[in-house]
Design goal:
Blueprint: E1 2-5, H1 11-22, E2 27-32, E3 37-42, H2 50-54, E4 59-63, E5 83-86, E6 92-95, E7 101-105, H3 112-125, E8 129-131, H4 149-162, E9 166-169, E10 184-187, H5 195-202, E11 208-211, H6 218-230, E12 236-240, H7 258-265, E13 270-272, H8 274-278, H9 284-293, E14 298-302, H10 320-337
Parallel strand pairs: 7-8, 7-14, 8-9, 9-10, 10-11, 11-12, 12-13
Antiparallel strand pairs: 1-3, 1-4, 2-3, 5-6
Helix pairs in contact: 3-4, 3-10, 5-6, 9-10
The structure holds phosphoenolpyruvate and manganese (II) ion.
């Protein structure tokens, strides 16, 4: 971090200020130019509040050289992180570090028949994980809100039936105790900056699927991951799920460039959600393939056996048949990319 000092600051004031900064655990290097004095801060500057420093009466400008996230930063962890899970069927499921993790299932759990049939179908096609929402963040309070605890029970029945590990969204930290048998906890786009939720999940031992907010920058997503990691939980999968655009043709716009950007900045696995990114089932297979070609470590895809009758997100849900043929194409892509599917 570099701090440019205002003109005309007295030597004694500068010394006091340097001492104050060193009290925050960094070394301060003073450099006096002809027209500008700058302080270079060396050490762990992640915990130093640049915005607060900018407001200090001696400070002209603060320039961050290193990103404000540390634990999520590839600089401090050059190797890819791989999330591994021993599934109930005995298979080791992996995401990241050369392994593609494919999560598939309905937007929301609707009935026992629906979730069990879909769990079987996506497993048969080669999915590694089953998704299904029990608590749904809906824009309208009048829309289907998910089956709640009963939906979780059905999802866990589908897990037992197929041996697939399950991924489902936690909206409210008070529900955490219901999630004991859930394998991966999803934090949805709307909750990406729910900092109290993120802090609590830092204390939990389960992997977290952290979805990018639809108006959040890459740095904000990594700072959200940093919240969870700072609490002690490093098992995070980042997810690009589309951001808002001016064009209503697609529900969101899949920011493919976020995939290589996140992988460059961070060691955490990055997956893509082509379903919420596009909102259009017919576009899902091509964007799924594009995401893998862009370097994604996996996908989360909405699959429904009767999209027309789905209680949530039917328009973007592909059928089990389409999912099975997409999996065939992904196997070919995985070979090209040298990754394990
Ligand atoms: C979902 O996965 O069903 C969901 C609601 O996702 P997002 O938070 O990305 O909108
Ligand atoms: Mn959905």
């Amino acid at each position: 971090m570099i701090i440019a000092i205002k003109r005309g600051v007295a030597e004694s004031e500068l010394e006091d200020f340097s001492r104050f900064l060193e009290g925050q655990g960094v070394k301060v290097h003073l450099s006096r130019g002809v027209s500008q004095t700058v302080l270079g801060l060396v050490g762990d500057t992640a915990a130093i509040d640049g915005e607060a420093l900018s407001a200090h009466h001696l400070v002209e400008k603060v320039i961050r050289v290193q990103e404000p996230y540390k634990r999520a930063n590839r600089i401090f962890h050059p190797d890819d992180t791989r999330i591994e899970l021993k599934a109930p069927d005995g298979v080791l499921r992996r995401v990241g570090g050369g392994c593609l993790g494919i999560i598939a299932g309905p937007c929301s759990v609707e009935t026992r028949e629906q979730i069990i049939a879909l769990a079987r179908a996506v497993k048969e096609a080669g999915a590694g994980f089953l998704r299904g929402g029990a608590f749904k963040p809906r824009t309208s309070p009048y829309s289907f809100q998910g089956l709640g605890p009963a939906g979780l029970d059905l999802l866990l029945e589908a897990k037992k039936e197929t041996g697939l590990p399950v991924v489902t969204e936690l909206m409210d930290i008070h529900h955490l105790e219901l999630f004991e048998d859930v394998d991966i906890i999803q934090v949805g786009a709307r909750n990406m900056q729910n900092f109290s939720l993120l802090k609590e999940l830092g204390r939990c031992k389960k992997p977290i699927l952290l979805k990018r907010g639809y108006a959040s920058t890459i740095t904000e997503l990594l700072m959200a991951a940093e919240y969870v990691m700072a609490g002690g939980n490093s098992r995070i999968i980042l997810c690009e799920r589309g951001i808002r655009s001016f064009d209503p043709y697609t529900r969101n716009i899949l920011d493919l460039s976020a995939i290589p950007a996140l992988k460059r900045q961070s060691h955490l696995p990055v997956i893509a959600d082509p379903s919420h990114a596009t909102g259009l089932a017919w576009m899902v297979p091509s964007m799924a393939k594009a995401a893998i070609a862009a370097g994604a470590d996996g996908l989360i895809i909405e699959v429904h056996n009767n999209p027309e009758a789905a209680l949530c997100d039917g328009e973007q849900s592909i059928t089990p048949d389409t999912f099975a043929s997409l999996m065939g194409a992904l196997r070919g892509l995985a070979d090209i990319e040298g990754k394990v599917l």
